[in-house]
Every structure is written in C-alpha cells, then in structure tokens.
C-alpha cells in the first residue's frame, strides 16, 4: 500500500501548529525523530485526532442536529454510527524523512505510521454471536 505524503501547496498556520504539537509528543527530545537521527525540519508529517465510531443511540438518531455517519456492513446492511474522539490532543499519523530518502536515493522514507484508533467501528455485535 502506497502511503506517499505530498507537501501541501498552500500552508495553513493551524495545520503547522497541530503538526508541531504532535511532533513534540512523538519526539523523545522535542526535535529528533525516534527512528532516524534527523529533526522535525527534515520530515513531512501529518497529524490528526485519533477516534473510533460507535453505534448511535436512539436519542442521537432522533436529534437532527447530531452528526452521524453511515457505516455499511459486509452483509449489505447499514448502521448509523457516532464519532468518538479518544485523545484530547492531535497525534502524529505519519512521518516521512526527506534526508533519509535523499541518502537512499528514493523519493520518501517512512519513519512512522499510526493506524490504531483511526476510524475503527467498535461495539457492533455480529449476527452469529
């Protein structure tokens, strides 16, 4: 699976600040990567709020102002789910090192990827249980 991260065309102060705070949580000393000897400036990063989805309650389904999502089940049915944030701060999702990539003669080197707690649906009982 290709996880290439392209640099943004137009920067965002909010995104840069979120990525910088996420890097502080990720880095042991605040600047150096955990997996290579390079600093934050040598990396392309993406960050986000880890979250799960859980089945919506009856009251949430009735409330028109509640933001719900449709989750399609493998058997063709669908269920409404609600997003639940599981961390109070954004965490680093990917970190690509530009310097390591140049040393290895490739376009990007992936130092870190977080896949846990990013959009999984929990609390759905299967029909055969």
- Kindly name the structural category: alpha+beta
Secondary-structure element pattern, one letter each: HEEHEEEHEE
Strand content: 25-35%
Mean pLDDT comes to 85
What is the total tally of β strands? 7
Unreliable spans: none
Side-by-side strand order of the widest sheet: 3-4-2-7
Gyration radius, in Å: 19 Å
**CA-CA gap between termini:** 32 Å
Total number of helices: 3
Percentage of residues in helical conformation: 10-25%
Overall morphology: elongated
The biggest beta sheet is recorded as:
4 strands, mixed
Question: Your description of this structure?
Answer:
The chain is α+β, with helices and mostly antiparallel strands. Helices cover 20% and strands 30% of the residues. The protein has three helices and seven strands. The protein has helices spanning 13-26, 58-62, 98-104, and strands at 43-48, 51-55, 69-72, 78-85, 91-97, 109-113, 118-121. A four-stranded mixed β-sheet has the order 3-4-2-7, with no helix packed on it. It has a three-stranded antiparallel β-sheet with strand order 1-5-6. The protein is elongated, with a radius of gyration of 19 Å.
Quick overview:
This protein is of the alpha+beta class and 129 residues long.
Key words describing this protein structure:
129 residues; alpha+beta; four-stranded mixed beta sheet; 3 helices; elongated
Helices and strands in order:
Blueprint: H1 13-26, E1 43-48, E2 51-55, H2 58-62, E3 69-72, E4 78-85, E5 91-97, H3 98-104, E6 109-113, E7 118-121
Parallel strand pairs: 2-7
Antiparallel strand pairs: 1-5, 2-4, 3-4, 5-6
